[in-house]
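To whoever is on call:

I kicked off a structure prediction for a single chain this morning and the downstream step that reads the tokens threw a length-mismatch warning. I double-checked the sequence; it's 241 residues and nothing unusual in it as far as I can see. Pasting both halves so you can look.
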Amino acid sequence: MSETKGTSLELEGIHAGYDGPDVLHGITLTVPQGQIVTVVGPNGHGKSTLLRTISGLTARRAGRIRLGGQDLTGLRPERIAALGLAHVPQGDLLFPEMTVYENLQMGAYLSRDPQQFAALLEDVYALLPRLKERHGQIASSLSGGERRMVGIGRGLMAGARVLMIDEPSLGLAPLVIEQIYEVIGTLREQGRTILLVEENPARVAHLSDVMHLLDDGRLTWSGAPAELLEREELLETYLGG
């Protein structure tokens, strides 16, 4: 599979799973440079497994993944991260007894350039000023929304070409969800390339360039977000309305 011009991430025929049967069945999609591509679907149907497979944390059993034209077959997660892929997992998985600043440092662990680190940190603090206010605070003492911001900031500290974010709204109050998606909207304006996972398509339709519906490990629909919101039969069948 040759790289599509202007495409940062490409998946072709991906099958993946854990110890038992496949969780993902023949997933093919592309994430063009500078766009937000969103995967929506019911909980427990393979969305997080998809991101884990791309980042090398879950075994891929068939298919190809390319990042910037480079085949990721056989590469360990740390090598995939070094090539420019950052994964913000569901629930953030912060280091709870480290400070906000130390968690952000961990995001830049692959970089040994102090000037690059300083520039990335300045960008993160400009995007997420609350983190600058909380830079010396222990992560476990933060609110849910603040922890989610640290997770996104840690991903950005990697300086990645593609940012994957897994359900950033999970478990948060509506006002905080709005704040988180304002941040993602700013990333969109900056021209960032993002693969986003979300359960609720209405929440992210205004941010997304393309939306894919994932059900039982298969892509059952792909297209423009506005079109999905008009397909009441799809929303009812797969997402409960």
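Update from on-call: the warning came from a stale cache, not from the record. Cleared it. Sanity check on the structure: Residues 1-5 have pLDDT under 50 and may be disordered.
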